[in-house]
Amino acid sequence: MSYSEIWDTQDAFDRYEAIRHRMPRAAFPSGTTQCSGLLEIADMFDAFVLDSFGVLNVGEAAIPGAVACLEQLRARGKHLIVLTNAASYTRETAVRRYRALGFDFAPDEVVSSRDVAASRLKEVLPVGNWGAIAAPEDRFTDIPAKVEHWSGQEVDGFLFLSSAALDADLLASVSTAIRHRKRPVVVANPDLVAPRETGLSKEPGYYAHQLADDLTIAPVYFGKPYTNAFEDAKSRLTGIHPQRIAMVGDTLHTDILGGAVAGFKTVLVRDHGLFAGHATETFISRSGIVPDFSCAGI
Ligand SMILES: [Mg+2]
What we know:
The protein has about 300 residues and is α/β, with parallel strands linked by helices.
């Protein structure tokens, strides 16, 4: 898989702030408590909702200590859910990939923005076919709609799943098609960037906001920080009070903002994701997106 553009933290943060008006609003705590990791605060929670990239893995590698931490949380009876904006592959493949990294998640413990979008596509376009912007190997068999890789053919809507094969030329083609005929654009990964071994890759959300700016259209986003993703996470944690659930993530504008909107407590993980190598205080004060807790790693 190749990603055509790599970006830096400051630019990604500035872009998140520039599109803030397209994101939900939330109330935040007045300050952040530093902690050594999730085990230190585990007594305060019955469930942990975990972001994936920057918390469990970077690119295709597990973050050291993450597998052991989750094993200990499970041993203490905590519910674990992965809530990821990864939409490049099916849940079956996601679970298999987690297994290969050492994580033992059951299929119903993984909520991906791909599934959040797939279950709601009919609300956006009751009838018609979707042109997918997706990883070349994607087969869409898990999506209950007519979806095919887009290569210029006539479609009724665009479905952004992955930026693995997306570059400026392909985006320009999508833009031209939408100028010719307006139609729904669904974004199944609202992230602007994702931490890879080589740096921050630009993700579907980045390109969709570009289209929104250029064409004055309103793409429909599924995934964090939007409430659709948190509805699906909550549906796996029925009976648990939101304040006994911790949303754990590396990104203020997706994980921490979305977690706060959902009424969860929030934990920012600093050292492996968007803010790796940066002091987070400036980003927190500039955005006003304040996590309840902050730790270097889980
Ligand atoms: Mg992340």
